[in-house]
Structures are given as structure tokens and as C-alpha cells.
């Protein structure tokens, strides 16, 4: 009696051992999955770090989780094969295996088309030199949507679903769908305009008639803007694409412009000295842009003599710009104090006559 004859006789005596062996096959694949993900991907990670391009490493890592799933599926498949089910059951099992293989590839390429992948990092640098551009997540979402549609289409074909009938049904209902989705389509193409023309990018400070704040993200339908009150405003793309957009983050220099009114009784020499001293100090300041510095006695205002201060800073960020403005505002106050020039307060002078003087004046007028 051979070993195989003894083995078959043993299994015939205890039929439940077939299920134990099938479970053991699944267990072996589970152990292989752990070994595969622990050692194989550790080697891939090491090789990708020393390689010239991380493209292949990123592609393989995108398939890491799908591979874990596929190994388990293969273990279950071989366990079912060992149990030798009926042919009609095997037809369904084979279809399920092919379905999971389709999901494996769709899941892997879905992960690889994420915005953090090497593919989109390089694409962002080639398109506009900025990997954080909103164009990249926008393209990523479109590509991921196409991958999902293609994956479910192939799965439907695998299960003999009539794709042609489904497409024909879409054609018949296409007009009604287009009419119902006019706003959605307009917002989608508004988003396409925003990411292609790029009037702003992520983290830019923008101002439109609708909203002002920091751009957080752009989606198919809308753009999210964080206002300075820390509220989140979601603006339809079709709205923001048709509005005048001021991108304050694109400032090359930042303006400082204000008036200071001094009293009318200020001597001309003092007024001229203040203007000249402040002008010379600001021209020599390293924080001030030298292209345009205008500090002049500008107007005869109702409340005083108006000194105009108009210049630009190199710094455009809000906090640093305020610090520079404060520094030279203090310096202007110091110069005014040193020259004994007083700031005029808005007001009016009111003159009152005594009652007796008023009567004498009226009597003289009557004569």
C-alpha cells in the first residue's frame, strides 16, 4: 500500500479533514502575505531609495495593499479548488477570481493616480513648476474617476452585463440629464478654466465680489476659500470663474499710503523740514522699495495741512508688512515731535460775541 493510497483511505475515513486541509491552505497564504509585505516591500523600498528615479518604487507601493488582498483571494481560490466543487460552482468561482484580479489592478492604479505619487509630482513641475498647484489634484480626480468607471465596466462585462443596452439608455436619457445638470456642467467647466488659466493656486490670498480669503482647494463643482474670520466658504466654480479675481499673493511689493494733517499755524520751514527728513530716511531704509517714494505736502484740508506718505515695502506678507509700517509710523511721530509740529485734530472754531457788543453792533447797523 503506497503513501497516496493510505492518504486517500485516511481522508475517506474522515471526510471533514478535507475542510481542515482547505483551511490550512488559506493559512499558508496568510503567512505568505505577511512575509511578502514585510520582506519583499522592504527590499523594494531600499532599492527605490538608492535608485535614480522613485517612479517604479511608487508604482509598486501603490499595489501593496491590493497585493495583500489578492494573496488572500488566491489562498481561498486554491482551497476551493482542493475541495473539487461541481463545475457550475467552479464557473462562478473563476468569475469571482477574475473580478478580484480586475479590482486588484483598478485599486493599484487608483492609488498610483493620487496627488502624492511621483507621477503627479513630476507632472506638476513640468506644467507650472509647482507640485502644489491645484491643477494636479484636479487631474488626479478626473483620472481616478476614469479608472473607477473603466474598472466597473470591465467587471460588468465579465458578468455578462449588457453594456450596450446601458449606453443606449444613457443616450435616450442624455438630454434630460443634461438639462437637469446644467449647473453641475457649468461648474465643472468653470473648474477647468480655473485650473488651466490658473488665476490663483492653493494657499493664495484672493478677493472677488463674492469672497475674500485663502484658497484651500478646488473640486469639480466648487472652490473652497478660508476667510480671515476662519469660516469656510464654498463658491461654485461657474461663479468664481466669471468674476474679477484679485490675487493679493501675487504682489511683488506692498503699498503704504496715508495722510497726516498738521495744524495751520505750523511754520513753513518746519513743514518742509518734516517732509524732507522723513523722505530721506525712508529712501535709505532697506525694507522700502526704492522705485516710488512720494512724501509731500499735498493738500489744504479743512482740519489742517495734509502731508501725504506713499511708498512700498519689499515684504508682502501681512504680519511683516504691519511690523514695517509700524516702525516708520513711530519714526514719523518722532520727527514731528523733534520739529515741534503738532497733529491737527478734526474740528471747528466757534466764535461768540458778548450780548452788549452784539446790541451795539446792531444799533450801529440801524443808523
Automatic annotation (TrEMBL):
Matches recorded under InterPro entries: LSM_dom_sf (IPR010920), MS_channel_1st (IPR049142), MS_channel_C (IPR049278), MscS_beta-dom_sf (IPR023408), MscS_channel_2nd (IPR006685), MscS_channel_C_sf (IPR011066), MscS_channel_TM-2 (IPR011014)
Record domain Mechanosensitive ion channel MscS C-terminal: where: 258-343
Domain Mechanosensitive ion channel MscS: 183-249
PANTHER family reported for this sequence: MECHANOSENSITIVE ION CHANNEL PROTEIN 1, MITOCHONDRIAL-RELATED, YNAI-RELATED MECHANOSENSITIVE ION CHANNEL
Alphabetically ordered keywords of this record: Cell membrane, Membrane, Transmembrane, Transmembrane helix
Annotated compartments: Cell membrane
UniProt-listed Gene3D superfamilies: 1.10.287.1260, 2.30.30.60, 3.30.70.100
Pfam families in the cross-refs: MS_channel_1st, MS_channel_2nd, MS_channel_3rd
Family designation: Belongs to the MscS (TC 1.A.23) family.
Protein name listed in UniProt: Mechanosensitive ion channel family protein
Cellular compartments per GO CC: plasma membrane
Membrane topology: Multi-pass membrane protein
Membrane-spanning ranges: 16-36, 67-83, 95-114, 135-157, 163-181
Residue span(s) of domain Mechanosensitive ion channel transmembrane helices 2/3: 142-182
BP GO annotations: transmembrane transport
Domain of life the protein comes from: Bacteria
Transmembrane as UniProt keyword: yes
Keyword set includes tRNA processing: no
Amino acid at each position: 500500500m503506497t503513501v497516496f493510497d493510505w492518504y486517500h483511505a485516511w481522508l475517506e475515513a474522515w471526510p471533514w479533514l478535507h475542510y481542515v486541509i482547505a483551511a490550512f491552505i488559506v493559512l499558508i497564504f496568510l503567512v505568505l502575505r505577511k512575509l511578502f509585505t514585510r520582506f519583499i516591500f522592504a527590499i523594494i523600498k531600499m532599492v527605490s531609495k538608492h535608485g535614480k528615479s522613485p517612479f517604479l518604487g511608487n508604482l509598486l507601493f501603490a499595489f501593496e495593499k491590493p497585493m495583500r488582498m489578492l494573496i488572500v483571494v488566491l489562498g481561498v481560490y486554491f482551497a476551493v479548488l482542493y475541495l473539487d466543487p461541481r463545475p457550475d460552482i467552479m464557473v462562478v468561482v473563476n468569475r469571482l477570481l477574475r473580478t478580484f484580479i480586475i479590482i486588484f489592478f483598478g485599486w493599484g492604479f487608483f492609488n498610483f493616480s493620487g496627488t502624492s505619487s511621483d507621477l503627479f509630482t513630476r507632472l506638476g513641475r513640468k506644467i507650472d513648476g509647482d507640485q502644489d498647484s491645484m491643477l494636479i489634484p484636479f487631474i488626479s480626480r478626473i483620472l481616478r474617476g476614469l479608472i473607477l468607471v473603466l474598472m466597473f465596466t470591465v467587471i460588468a462585462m465579465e458578468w455578462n452585463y449588457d453594456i450596450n443596452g446601458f449606453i443606449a439608455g444613457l443616450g435616450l436619457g442624455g438630454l434630460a440629464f443634461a438639462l437637469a445638470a446644467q449647473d453641475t456642467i457649468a461648474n465643472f467647466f468653470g473648474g477647468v478654466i480655473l485650473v488651466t488659466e490658473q488665476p490663483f493656486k492653493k494657499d493664495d490670498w484672493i478677493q472677488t465680489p463674492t469672497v475674500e480669503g485663502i484658497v484651500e482647494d478646488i473640486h469639480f463643482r466648487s472652490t473652497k476659500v478660508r476667510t480671515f474670520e476662519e469660516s469656510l466658504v464654498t463658491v461654485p466654480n461657474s461663479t468664481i470663474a466669471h468674476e474679477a479675481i484679485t490675487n493679493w499673493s501675487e504682489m511683488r511689493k506692498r503699498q503704504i499710503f496715508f495722510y497726516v494733517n498738521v495744524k495751520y499755524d505750523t511754520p513753513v520751514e518746519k513743514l518742509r523740514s518734516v517732509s524732507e527728513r522723513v523722505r530721506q530716511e525712508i529712501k535709505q531704509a532697506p525694507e522700502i522699495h526704492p522705485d516710488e517714494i512720494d512724501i509731500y505736502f499735498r493738500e489744504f484740508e479743512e482740519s489742517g495741512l495734509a502731508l501725504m506718505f506713499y511708498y512700498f515695502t519689499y515684504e508682502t506678507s501681512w504680519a511683516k508688512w504691519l511690523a514695517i509700517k509700524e516702525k516708520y509710523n513711530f519714526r514719523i511721530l518722532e520727527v514731528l515731535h523733534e520739529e515741534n509740529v503738532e497733529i491737527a485734530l478734526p474740528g471747528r472754531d466757534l466764535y461768540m460775541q458778548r450780548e452788549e457788543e452784539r446790541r451795539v453792533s446792531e444799533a450801529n447797523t440801524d443808523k
